[in-house]
Amino acid sequence: MKPEVSIKVNEKFKADFAKGYPLITKESVENAEMLRVEGAILRLTDKQGQFIAKGYCGKQNKGFGWILTRNENEAIDQKFIKEKLAAALAKRQSFFSNQETTAFRVFNGEGDGFGGLTIDYFDGYYMLSWYSEGMYTFKADVIAALRELVEFKGIYQKKRFDTKGQYIEEDDFVAGERGEFPLIVKENGMNYAIYLNDGAMTGIFLDQRDVRNKIKEKYAKGKTVLNTFSYTGAFSVAAAIGGAAKTTSVDLAKRSSSKTIEQFSINNIDYESHDILVMDVFNYFKYAKRKELKFDMVILDPPSFARSKKYTFSTSKDYTNLMKEAIEITADAGVIVASTNSASFGMKKFKGFIDKAFKDLGKKYSIVEEFTLPSDFRVQKEFKEGDYLKVLFVKLQ
Ligand code: SAH
């Protein structure tokens, strides 16, 4: 049995919880000192002791726990978890039956009714990401439920919470049979190499699937494409398969080069006819300006925050400047794919950053495509922060 803790909700936040807001923050409760037993079941009431909701305690960067039900009689047990998983699986049936795409998100935390856990599917393997120690206390129930609901080759996990140095991430294998890595998955007919046993990252960000497909299908043919913050080169591969004249991938991480070569190679693309550069994007912009290079397409998908030897980049402060750098090396009528995964601002503000860049340079543009999270990354409408992805295709005039 899990311990149960009574939590008094701050009056100001009562209406939000009643409406379905799922995240329990420090400010939203009167007795925050009670939010320390990871995995405890939380019973939220108002000042008068009237029941509001039940949740669990799990400290992660976003808050101290998640609401799970507003039904007082519903127990948070294996049956509860199985129902949430079953509902989530049912909503992904079209993905399971699509042979062209074998990697997608099966369970998206609060968007599927249980914040703190995501599950991704990679061609028969399930990868669980635990976002707090509290969430991790449900592990046995989650695995048991998964065993009852699906057939799998294997289950892997990632602990995405502070383990205080106790946990050596030598192996993330949980159940079934071990995979052979890289695992080659398909996405809209393209191949991608995935590693489930190699640290926090797997090799591609599944939430950009629709963006990669749009580049491949509609924008790449015959074009020169610059992919900045390119990581494993997933966007470059999509552009190359879509018929790009040439792609240039730039990332400062040393491993990005061999990873990008691998992604090209498993798609039978000659990586030597593409440029793969290990360098700081901001230095590359300087180089490209000096050489008067212009690209038909520039892809900008920076991390929310990054620090290199010379530069610090924070999306919410520096996107306008980043965009200006990109505009200056984009050809007339070229397209900039401007992307951010920052949850700290919404689409309107993001469009503002882009608009300011063009105004500052006295140039005109139009937005030709707009993306948020794909349908497998389900979001809860009461929790706007969960809908973090914003991607705009901006065409220069
Ligand atoms: N766009 C990629 C994901 C980017 S992840 C994709 O869709 O696959 C962020 C990447 O930015 C990391 O690989 C990191 O190494 C790189 N990075 C961070 N700061 C950088 C900088 N100043 N210059 C070049 N790359 C940088």
Automatic annotation (TrEMBL):
Its EC number is 2.1.1.-. Residues 7-70 form the RlmI-like PUA domain. CDD domains: AdoMet_MTases, RlmI_M_like. This is Class I SAM-dependent rRNA methyltransferase. The keyword Methyltransferase applies. Keywords: Methyltransferase, S-adenosyl-L-methionine, Transferase. The keyword S-adenosyl-L-methionine applies. It comes from the Bacteria. GO terms for biological process: methylation. InterPro entries: PUA-like_sf, PUA_sf, RlmI-like_PUA, SAM-dep_methyl-trfase, SAM-dependent_MTases_sf. One of its GO terms (molecular function) is methyltransferase activity. Residues 173-347 form the S-adenosylmethionine-dependent methyltransferase domain. PANTHER family: RIBOSOMAL RNA LARGE SUBUNIT METHYLTRANSFERASE YWBD-RELATED, SAM-DEPENDENT METHYLTRANSFERASE.
